[in-house]
Amino acid sequence: MTPRRLVYVLPQGSLAEPTHARVAEWLRRLGCADEVDLHLLAGPESQNGTWRRFPERSAILVGTHDGLLSRALMRGFADARAMAPVSFGLLNTDTHWVFDEMHLLGPGLPTSERLQSLRESFGTTAPTGSTWMSSTWGGDPTDGADVAAGAPLAAVRRIRRLDPDPTRYVDDLVDALGAAHLPGTQSIAVLGSARRARAVHGALRAAHPGREIVLVHPYARSVDRQNRAAVSEEAGRDRILVTTRALDVGSDVSGRTLLTELAPWSALVQRAGRCNRHGEHLDGGDLLWCVPPDGPGPDAGVAAWLDAHEGEAVTTVDLFRARVEQGAASSRILREHDVLAMFDNAYGAVPADASPWVCADDEHTVFVAWRVWESGEPAEDEPQAARGEQCEAPLADVREMPADRGVWLRDPVDGRWRHAVADDLRPGTSVVLDAARGGYLPEVGWAPESDAPVPSLFAGRTPPAIACVAWVSLDRHLLETEEEARAVTAALPGLTDEHREAVARAARFHDLGKCHDVFQAMLRGGGGGEPPDHLLAKSKAPWNNGLSTRAYFRHELVSALILSNGEHWHTPGLDPELVTYLVAAHHGRVRVSVRPAADEDAQALLGVRDGDRTPPVAVSTGDHFPGQSLDTGVFRPGGSWTPQVLALRDRDDLGPFRLAYLESLVRVADWRSSARHDGPTAGLAP
After folding, report:
1. CB 499, CB 89: distance < 8 Å
2. Of 218, 427, 546, 615, which sits 20 to 30 A from 20 (CA to CA)?
């Protein structure tokens, strides 16, 4: 059985845009662009992506291994914490992973292998597999094939070592590139760090003001990154491209002259393949290399091979046939207990960090956006940065910023904007900077040394274009969500009858907690006309959603308490604890362990107070829930909730991957039933 999702993984630091564009073109030529969803997962995204909302559809996801593997560990570097269980559930079920250039994955390689093994041992609802590919490891590419003179495998490049003076390292590289560049051709300089790439780019522009000098690296906003990726693919230009490892994989760029800092053998072969890539320069290309300022490190064996072939013209075949020892990247081994621990992503706690299993310490990144504030700080209702505003940036650079640069983030618990402190800055964190204080240049990208004001891409706070435009009764929403749940589970393979029924029942009961007076008051306040008298699930005033009079209030916690306090809804052969968990987890906030917000009093838990009463609720299915007094003790330390969920997670017929998949399907059903009542909000004013 072929999985529905294909995840195509490039090494971290690669530009995923060219690969995404090629896949889009292939789908168009095959005539199936309307049948296969294609997504570029290159930063934060909303829940609206069709790969999440329609798990029964075929989809191709393209991205780099840091973002994708971290999502598969429920710690997505670009995922909102509430969305992490959905990513975890879908990416580990009914999915095939393809890892391009496996030897450039660093710690991600053993993690990808171990994760596949854990899927097989824990079990998944539908088959999920992995394929690892490398063009620089194992075998001889010429076996069984003829290599014609002038073909890419026979293209030659001459090896020459540069020995820049460490005290004037950048200047010496610029001089060497200027001397080696042949007018009318393209030269490429590959630096091992974005900081040195920026320095070389700036020095080249100063030394050669009339020449086209382009900086290509992943640390740029999406529009700039896409433009540079497109420019780098254009052939026949007289220019110098300065880049990091961004062009190592997934690009078809070629240069007559290529300068690279010493790198692991796999990366060096990739870069050498960009020198006279297509054999277009019949006299061969020039492959220049140098040892970076911090020394050869574990790549001393690579340097020895290059020195041994100094001045020689080598072909791609020669590079493939060479066997060069290189140091293996140290990494933590992903254990079973690590995955089980990461299944709990409780709010109010510092989440376990997946980065040791994904990327090296010096490769951690965060997402940065810029806003213009007259007061120098975000307003209380400042919206979170959109994907198009954000720029991926080295975590170390942001941590080194002085306090007066103003690094702001939205608190993950109370949603308020505040200054980021050191412990906040973790891989994948989203922050906002004051545009007046610099940090970005459109032609350079991330530039922390710049104090030039940054053009902000913030389009302003606007009401949603599409939102609920009707008063939707609680009964109707519960019935429609159950309909969606039964439809989506019927279209998916591998689910048992109990799993399908558990998802359907959870969908039927998921929003029972909206009967609480606090939630009803929120839905009815703020305009939208006169609301009906019956219990509501959705408001006609979409701008009012979220304006609760009770801080941190979580209606799904109330739903779970209502189910926990009654037995009349139980069905033989259906585990009521599974249904209750799926109900509680349908927003990704009430899952394994539940913690109060830091400033809540002892009688409250996520806005639900002991002694709160809920009214009777009747569902058209015949289910009836009497009014009751709520007691949150079951969710507190020492209560039965966490042991109950851990028992579900460890059940032989569930396990972490299946359980997360089932909770994802309940959320999908909720999204889709809610969308039945969405419409354009133009003309509505808050």
Report:
1. no
2. 427
Location of structure tokens 């693919």: 233
Average pLDDT, the chain: 90
Q: Where are the beta strands (DSSP E) in 191-315?
A: 212-216, 239-243, 257-261, 285-290, 313-315
Could you give the CA distance from residue 523 to residue 541 in angstroms, rounded to a whole number?
Answer: 8
- Count how many residues are written for the chain: 686
Residue 630's SS3 state is coil
pTM, rounded to two decimals: 0.92
Which residue, chain included where needed, has tokens 């309940």? 666
- Per DSSP (E only), the strands in 517-654 are 536-538, 604-605, 608-609, 613-614, 617-618, 624-625, 628-629
460-466 LR contacts (CB < 8 Å, sep 24+): 461/381, 461/382, 461/383, 463/542, 463/543, 463/681, 463/684, 463/685, 463/686, 464/542, 464/681, 465/680, 465/681, 465/682, 466/678, 466/679, 466/680, 466/681
Give the H or E element holding residue 587: none
CA atoms within 13 A on the CB side of 485: 29
Beta strands 678-680 and 628-629, pairing class: unpaired
Reported as a single tens digit per residue, the pLDDT across 218-254 is: 999 988 988 887 777 777 789 999 999 998 888 888 9
Farthest CA pair distance, the chain = 86
**Token pair belonging to 553:** 């209030």
CA distance 293 to 262: 10
Q: What is the DSSP letter of 282?
A: T
Average pLDDT over residues 322-329: 72
User: Beta strands 466-468 and 678-680: pairing type?
Assistant: antiparallel
- CA-based radius of gyration for the chain: 28
**Residue, of 614 and 428, whose pLDDT is higher:** 614
Distance separating alpha carbons of residues 118 and 334, to the nearest angstrom: 9
Distance CA 369, CA 599 (A): 29
**Token pair in block for residue 48:** 């609206």
> Which strand (E) or helix (H) includes residue 234?
none
Query: Rounded to 10 degrees, what is the CA torsion of 529, 534, 537, 541?
Result: 10
Q: Which two tokens stand for residue 263?
A: 């790198």
Range list of β-strands (E), 348-441: 365-371, 391-394, 407-410, 417-419, 430-434, 440-441
Residue 601's contacts (CB-CB under 8 Å, 6 or more residues apart) are none
